[in-house]
Design brief:
There is one protein chain. This protein is mainly β. It has three domains: 1-30; 33-60 and 155-215, Sandwich (Immunoglobulin-like), CATH 2.60.40; 63-151, Cupredoxins -  blue copper proteins (Immunoglobulin-like, Sandwich), CATH 2.60.40.420. It contains one helix and 17 strands. Strands 6-12-11-8-9 form a five-stranded mixed β-sheet, with no helix packed on it. Strands 13-2-15-16 form a four-stranded antiparallel β-sheet, with no helix packed on it. Strands 14-1-17 form a three-stranded mixed β-sheet, with no helix packed on it. The N and C termini lie far apart (77 Å). The structure holds copper (II) ion.
Length: 215
């Protein structure tokens, strides 16, 4: 019995020691991830929320297709979210969670389609396999509008209401970073991301017509 208890104590002590070791190792290990963060000061916009900030070219490209089920919701005659960045090759679901029928379509070069009219409770899906801006409309409700932004890599973010954004986990290197918003001219900046530190940048895009995502 005594021996048995000793063995148990020993095992408990080993576990505690093991956990402590892992914690110390985790704290001491240098973080390899660096990112780009900062702020977009949008002149002439009511809110700085919902501005896309994206890395134009990055080592990881379309192979990084997200397995996330992207959902562009329809509620109260609104597409949610309004600005919707995804990576090339992603599938998007378009559930009609409204009380009326919608007819979602796009005439954009990056993706042209027309779901036709569909009832509340029904859903449609579409795969977006070409980079670019997809201007989403509803044939029944002219005020309904959203932008699906099909991006070449997963390094992008959308600003919060203060205009802040954060693009984490970038490999060290030099990148062209751009903004996109339907009512702003795109601003761009060249940014060098070091091995272990985040870089802070600021954009001040002016009002105007939006350009393309990629030339
Ligand atoms: Cu509609």
């Amino acid at each position: 019995m005594v021996i048995y208890r000793h063995a148990n104590n020993f095992r408990r002590a080993s576990i505690i020691l093991g956990v402590a070791f892992i914690l110390i190792w985790a704290l001491a290990a240098p973080s390899q991830a660096a990112g780009i963060k900062g702020r977009v000061i949008a002149q002439g916009l009511r809110s700085a929320k919902g501005i896309l900030v994206y890395v134009v070219e990055a080592p990881i490209s379309s192979s990084a297709v997200s397995e996330t089920a992207y959902v562009l919701d329809q509620r109260e005659l609104t597409f949610i979210p309004h600005i919707f960045p995804i990576t090339v090759g992603s599938k998007v679901e378009f559930p009609n969670n409204d009380k009326v029928a919608h007819n979602v379509f796009s005439l954009s070069r990056a993706k042209e389609f027309n779901f036709g009219s569909y009832e509340p409770g029904q859903s449609k899906t579409e795969v977006f396999n070409k980079p670019g801006v997809v201007d989403m409309r509803c044939d029944v409700h002219q005020e309904m509008n959203a932008f699906i932004l099909v991006l070449k890599n997963p390094y992008f973010a959308v600003t919060d209401k203060e205009g802040r954004f954060s693009i984490p986990n970038l490999p060290a290197g030099s990148y062209q970073v751009k903004t996109w918003h339907e009512k702003l001219r795109s601003a761009r900046q060249k940014v060098t991301v070091p091995e272990n530190n985040d870089v802070s940048i600021q954009f001040k895009p002016k009002r105007g017509s939006a350009g393309v995502l990629y030339r």
